[in-house]
From TrEMBL:
Name of the protein: DDE Tnp4 domain-containing protein
Cofactor: a divalent metal cation
Record domain DDE Tnp4: where: 4-71
GO molecular function terms attached to this record: metal ion binding
Organism name: Petrolisthes cinctipes (Flat porcelain crab)
Tree of life domain: Eukaryota
UniProt KW Metal-binding keyword: yes
Keywords: Metal-binding
């Protein structure tokens, strides 16, 4: 794991860890929904609509272009022609799956961040 990847606390034991976990879940939901909307609009980056058969660098450029075009569509209120679900009906997962505690620098970084940003100061 990389130190900049925030991993969930498997079993939060205090208020700071619980606040961190909730923030991580909310952030992950937003990121996953956003990526789902972009992959729906640009089927070439969705694994069921086709996969990018290019080098990682070229694929990253294509994904960046899709994100840029998506942002432009959103700013100009251009609807997604593939969207069949109203936004309020889109499924939301509220449990962080995967990563977890794996030790190493990612856990050390996380354990430094939690009290700094989620601990109660002056209380």
């Amino acid at each position: 794991m990389e130190p900049f990847l925030m991993t969930p606390v498997t079993n939060p034991t205090n208020e700071a860890e619980e606040l961190y976990y909730r923030a991580l879940v909310r952030t992950r939901v937003i990121v996953e929904l956003t990526l789902g909307v972009v992959k729906n609009r640009f089927r070439c980056i969705h694994r069921f609509g086709g996969e990018l058969q290019y080098t990682p660098l070229r694929s990253a450029k294509i994904v960046s272009a899709c994100l840029l075009l998506h942002n432009r569509c959103v700013s100009r209120s251009i609807p997604d022609p593939n969207n069949h679900l109203p936004e309020e009906d889109m499924p939301i997962e509220t449990h962080v799956v995967g990563a977890g505690d794996r030790g190493g620098t990612d856990r050390q970084t996380r354990d430094e961040i939690i009290p700094e940003f989620y601990g109660r100061k002056g209380v």
